[in-house]
Amino acid sequence: MQQSTLNEQPSKSGRINLDPEGAEQGLAQLVLTVIELLRQLVERQALRRVDGGTLSEEEIEQLGLALMNLEVKMDELKEIFELEEEDLNIDLGPLGNLL
């Protein structure tokens, strides 16, 4: 069985690579996956609040800017760790994919 190296691309199987040599990459993939999941949840909640009329125009603008800034930072981090959007959709086995 061949071991992966630190320079190897992240697993395209939807599973997190946790081998000792690629631990940094696997950890980055896991952390960014959790952040992306939370970002999507916050975005959905924000849309519900906007649709429900419970936010002022200023709050809507601030929320929109915050979500855009978070998306930009996520793109930067994915580039740094050489991850694609599909790399963050990890396979949870019998539960299916996370995102």
Automatic annotation (TrEMBL):
Pfam families recorded: GvpK
Protein localization: Gas vesicle
Disordered: annotated span: 1-20
Comp. bias intervals (Polar residues): 1-14
Chain coiled-coil ranges: 60-87
Keywords: Coiled coil, Gas vesicle
Superkingdom per UniProt: Bacteria
Principal subcellular localisation of the protein: other
Family in the record: Belongs to the gas vesicle GvpK family.
Record's protein name: Gas vesicle protein K
Organism, as annotated: Halobacillus salinarum
Upper taxonomic lineage: Bacteria, Bacillati, Bacillota, Bacilli, Bacillales
